[in-house]
Amino acid sequence: MKLLKNIKYKIVLLAFAVLFSACNDYIEEDIFSDITSENFIDENTADQLVVGVYTQLRSVYKNYGYKFLGTDIFTIKGELFSTSSENDYFAVTAPDGNGVWSSNYNVIAKANTAINRYENQINWSDTNLDDKAYGIAQARALRALAYFNLVVQYGGVALELEEPQSIRTDYTRSSEEETYTLIIAELEAAIPDLLDTPETGRFSKRAAQHLLSEVYLTRAYKSYAGTNDFETAATLAESAIGGYDIRSQSYAEVFDFDNQVNDEVLFAVQFGNSGFSSDKSNTKHSLFMYSVFNYESQGVSRANPYGGVGSSGMPTPYFYSLFADDDERENATIHRTIIADKEGVMGTDNIVAGDTVVYYPKKALDIAELTDKLDRYWVYQPDQYLYMVPDDIPGVNYLYSASPSQNIHFPIFKKFDDEDINAEIEGSRDTFVFRVAESHLLAAEAYLGANDPVNALIHLNRVRERATGVANYYTSISVDDILVERALELAGESNRWAVLKRTGKLEERIELYNPHVIDHGAFDPDIHYLRPIPNNELVISPTTMEQNPGY
Questions:
Q1: DSSP assignment of 160-187, as one string?
Q2: What DSSP character marks residue 393?
Q3: Torsion angle of alpha carbons 412, 418, 420, 423, nearest 10°?
Q4: Helix residue ranges per DSSP H, 340-405
Q5: 388 vs 393, 419, 532, CA distance in Å?
Q6: pLDDT by residue (tens digit) across 154-173?
Q7: Could you report the per-residue pLDDT of 505-533, keeping only the tens digit for each?
Q8: pLDDT, tens digit (0-9, with 9 covering 90-100), for 231-251
Q9: For strand 356-359 and strand 378-379, is the pairing parallel, antiparallel, or unpaired?
Q10: CB neighbours of 508 closer than 8 A, spacing ≥ 6?
Q11: Please, how many CA atoms are within 13 Å of residue 366, restricted to the half-sphere of its CB?
Q12: What is the dihedral of CA 540, 542, 546, 550, to 10 degrees?
């Protein structure tokens, strides 16, 4: 059973026991789903504080802001002249509030509470001291994860390690260097007490090693880097891999809905269909979509298996161009066809469930083949994957001007497809946070930074081999090679913006590959390598909290 499901079932049973023992008495408000020191926290129930930290991660990993848009492989669904500050950096201003900031600090607050209660409130028997150490280690690792999510976006942030007890107006940002120092210290302290093979949903030793590898790797590019940061990052990535061979299952198998708990996944944020609405609330499948149910008259119902739209983003044409013919990740990552799930009609064509409604060829069709196919379904060529209405082909049944989704059309994402969706965008699929394939790519980048291209190639080629069957595709290696493989392997998973920033490639690659940036981008390296601190934080601490330069 999954971690979050286990704890919730116990809470429900306890609540029912209280209900039926109350008889005719009025039930006082006893809190069993939000454990506090005022009800029943002791060494036997303390783990629920740690579970609460895991639960808060759902908000972090349902917030897709600042991760994908404004990069080389993701842009917005809009005309080329349309502006979006998050994507083209035009007129970026500080928001009043921001989910990236608040959700990560909520994780930190819950972790601080758990650690304080574990250390200072709960009386631990000698036989449960290992449980105490394990609980604290999990909370410290998750707190480090939240601080890392913050520092890559904002630079130095307020380092709070105490349980929040009162309203404060004197929050002060630490330096970026101090923030990295804290994150490293937290993870190094946590790793010895984490488990190698914990209960599903818990942060494992290898997951922490993966995260610490990325932290050292990110710091390695900084002016204040440690002497051996690249080497340390490589060693930790090797530990995270732990001898697991990613070739033991295909890329498609990794993302099979029925195979979400698999050996490649080092850590995932859990959702599910337990009957609790908060469990079935993941929106990952709605990323990089357009409203395919616009084709309802042509056989694609609102209850279609693709789901609804949950973001303004779409892949760039550059992203689609990266897939080689032998790369099996393409078929697992995107849908090149939209299939009817009910009866429909288009002109003289009667559509039944299972028929193709829209087709996105990998390579442009010649006019004869295009004309032939447009008698049976709409076809959008690779140079039409943006906001536009192609010219009609005379005499065909499927005219572009008759399409109910005229302006936007592109191969939608497949790898996050969910088989259990509520209200079109609420699903039950887990969100993968760390995978061993990414550990290989961290190792490749770290070894390259450490001037060890031989070992860097071993790890880069292992990822490519799983996808193509070619054992030694790369004979030389560069940061750009690693960024290509990361795009193919981890699109929509890892924080693409942070990776481009880390490698010093953000400005270069958005000006080459993001169509809206190419048209009217306003990226300023003196400003936009850091995100603006939310205005609310400046209001809370007006004399101590500082805004990032340029905002």
A1: --S---S--S---PPPHHHHHHHHHHHH
A2: P
A3: -40
A4: 367-373
A5: 15, 31, 33
A6: 999 999 999 988 889 999 99
A7: 999 999 999 999 999 999 999 999 999 99
A8: 999 999 999 999 999 999 999
A9: parallel
A10: none
A11: 1
A12: 100
